[in-house]
Structures are given as C-alpha cells and as structure tokens.
C-alpha cells in the first residue's frame, strides 16, 4: 500500500487497475436492484426481498463495496443519490425552520419513523447532520460536495 502497488477500497485490498466487470445478467440485476431501491425513495424495500426480486444476490457485495448501495441497517439499504437527496431536503427545511426533530424530518421526507431514524443516524455518521438532544442540525450541503442542482428533482 505504501508503495502504491496496492490500494484499499471498502476494506478490501486490490491492484489499482482492478475493476469488477459484471456479465450482462449481473449488470441487469445490479441496475434492477438500484432502481428498486431508488423507487422506494425514503422507504425502500427490505434489501433481502429487493435483492431476491432483482436476482442480484451475487452482485450485492460488489455494489456495497463500490458504494453504489449503502447499507443503513441489516435490512435497510439506499443509494447514495437517495441519501444525498435526503440531505438536501433536510437542509432546505433547516434553512427555514432551524434544527429539526425526527418527527419533522419524517414529514419533510414523507416517510415513517421506521425509516427516518436509521436514515438520520446514517446522515449523522456521514457528517451531514449532527444530533443535539432531540434535534438535528443539518450541515451545509455545499460542504459535502453534493451536486445540489442534480438533487432537486424526484428521487
């Protein structure tokens, strides 16, 4: 690693030139899984059932390792776009209202407590929000390099 002959990626070590290439079936399954998660917006299907529906069991580990799918809990996963979109929506509400309760974040994201609590914890972990008691301070989306104009549309 120190000499640059290997690189660490998602806890795995590989040659810098190494890229995983899916065959046609795997690529279709990967795209279907990502689409299923995106279609769920802030209440995506359980990752096990979505993976089964997409036929993506063999590609899920690589999708997670590459960051195309972010595991939020054992049963909950989202795409980076969905998580970034949540950050933008919460930021916009924070600019008007100040710190947000989990209940208010749930309303802003039009989801349920089941999803909003782990989603907020993931945003806390990413440094997008900071919990202060029962409130969340939403940190500036510009600090995180989100392409905000790309995130204003529907998830």
Span between N and C termini? 38 Å
Number of strands: 7
**Unreliable runs:** 147-155
- Write down the overall geometry: elongated
Work out the strand percent.
5-15%
Average pLDDT, all residues:
85
Order of helices and strands: EEHHHEEHEHHEE
- Describe the sheet with the most strands: 3 strands, antiparallel
Helix content: 40-55%
Structural class: alpha+beta
The helix tally amounts to: 6
Radius of gyration: 17 Å
Short recap of the structure:
45% of the residues lie in helices and 13% in strands. The chain has helices at residues 24-39, 47-54, 60-65, 80-97, 102-109, 113-126; strands at 7-9, 12-14, 70-71, 77-78, 100-101, 129-132, 135-138.
Strand-helix topology:
Layout: E1 7-9, E2 12-14, H1 24-39, H2 47-54, H3 60-65, E3 70-71, E4 77-78, H4 80-97, E5 100-101, H5 102-109, H6 113-126, E6 129-132, E7 135-138
Antiparallel strand pairs: 1-2, 3-4, 5-7, 6-7
Helix pairs in contact: 1-2, 5-6
